[in-house]
């Protein structure tokens, strides 16, 4: 009997939205989760073709003597220049896409989650069946991040938020929205969504 491919569900949310907490609940429910941002970092240090492409574009200094990614150097070279950001995204996103497809091939669950902060911005949402956006009021998000990341200033948090699409832009593009505000309980929303996704996967 041929095993059908799982339903591919993307989950995103801006910094401080509570996306990681929602993912932990899905994980407890037995849902396999592909953490795209973590895998991107791993691939940049371990994928030979990707490493070579990064060196070709940004120089030998992109990696330290032991072969690990020189994040400080790369950040200083890439982030101030939008053209260079586009170049590195053009190298990393296809590698992540290929890695995700390979990962999906090994899964037998009814549906899987692909977690990524820049799901819409990278265009990778187009390869998925359903999208979840975890949203929260801006003030709540800033407070959460300041409590969690003591090293970040409020100005730095605003700079990160400014680089991400707003909930007003993401919500209409999403199939489901989890509202992670102080007056909304997260677990019942995830449980309800889990039921809906299981139903969609078996339809």
Distance between the termini: 18 Å
Detail the poorly predicted runs: none
Number of helices: 9
Radius of gyration: 18 Å
Secondary-structure element string:
EHEHHHHEEHHHEH
Shape designation? globular
Q: Strand percentage, roughly? A: 5-15%
Largest sheet: 5 strands, parallel
Q: Which structural class do you get from the secondary structure elements?
A: alpha/beta
Give the strand line-up of the largest sheet.
Answer: 2-3-1-4-5
* Oligomer classification: single chain
| Number of extended strands | 5
* Helix residue percentage: 40-55%
> What is the mean predicted local confidence, pLDDT?
93
Function: Catalyzes the phosphorylation of the 3'-hydroxyl group of dephosphocoenzyme A to form coenzyme A.
Catalytic activity: 3'-dephospho-CoA + ATP = ADP + CoA + H(+)
Family: Belongs to the CoaE family.
EC number: 2.7.1.24
Structure description:
Its main location: cytoplasm. With 203 residues, this protein is α/β, with parallel strands linked by helices. Helix content is 52%, strand content 12%. The protein is built from nine helices and five strands; from the N terminus they run βαβααααββαααβα. It has a five-stranded parallel sheet with strand order 2-3-1-4-5, with helices on both faces. It is globular, with a radius of gyration of 18 Å.
């Amino acid at each position: 009997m041929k095993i059908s491919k799982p339903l591919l569900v993307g989950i995103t949310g801006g910094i401080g939205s509570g996306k990681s907490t929602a993912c932990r609940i899905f994980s407890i429910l037995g849902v396999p989760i592909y953490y795209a941002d973590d895998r991107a970092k791993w691939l940049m240090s371990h994928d030979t073709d990707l490493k070579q492409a990064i060196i070709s574009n940004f120089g030998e200094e992109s990696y330290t003597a032991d072969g690990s990614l020189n994040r400080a150097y790369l950040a200083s070279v890439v982030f101030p220049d939008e053209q260079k950001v586009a170049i590195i995204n053009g190298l990393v996103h296809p590698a992540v896409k290929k890695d995700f497809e390979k990962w999906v091939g090994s899964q037998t669950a009814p549906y899987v989650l692909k977690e990524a902060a820049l799901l819409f911005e990278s265009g990778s949402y187009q390869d998925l069946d359903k999208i979840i956006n975890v949203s929260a009021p801006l003030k709540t998000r800033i407070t959460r991040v300041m409590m969690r990341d003591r090293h970040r200033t409020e100005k730095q948090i605003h700079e990160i938020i400014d680089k991400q699409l707003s909930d007003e832009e993401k919500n209409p593009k999403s199939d489901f929205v989890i509202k992670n505000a102080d007056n909304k309980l997260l677990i019942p929303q995830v449980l309800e969504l889990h039921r809906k996704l299981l139903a969609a996967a078996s339809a």
